[in-house]
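Tutorial, part two.
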Amino acid sequence: MEFERFERTTAPTSKGPFVTVNKRGNFSFNRATFELLGEPEEIELLFSKPDRVIGLKAATPGEPYAFPVKPVLGRTPGSKPSNYTVNCLSFVNHYGIDHSVSRRYEVEQRDDGILAVDLKQGGVEIPPSRSRQREVANN
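Running the prediction step on this input gives:
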């Protein structure tokens, strides 16, 4: 019988586009979402109050409404980032978006170029990382 070793570091979490609203009130998203946005330096954050839908679209850098997109550098030197973050606690708090736990949401590309994140879909709760679990347990 032949066995294959499971390499945890190479297992994809999701290939489709997604956005995570994390406990710190920031957004993180994968490369698929970044590419759908057009690989921007900054994005606009939009919100439909009646529909509870977040909108994301590329912004002109330097505009007062633009939020910088920061790559999360991987462990392999020279590799392309696979995740990106946007510090947007003010946006999350302003619209009363729950960030008591980290939740991952699927992204829908609309005809107008806006990426939509429907908060009514509930999202998938993301458990804390093992290092964070150890940190909490030791306090």
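The CA atoms of residues 95 and 104 lie 18 Å apart. In part three we will examine how such features are distributed along the chain.
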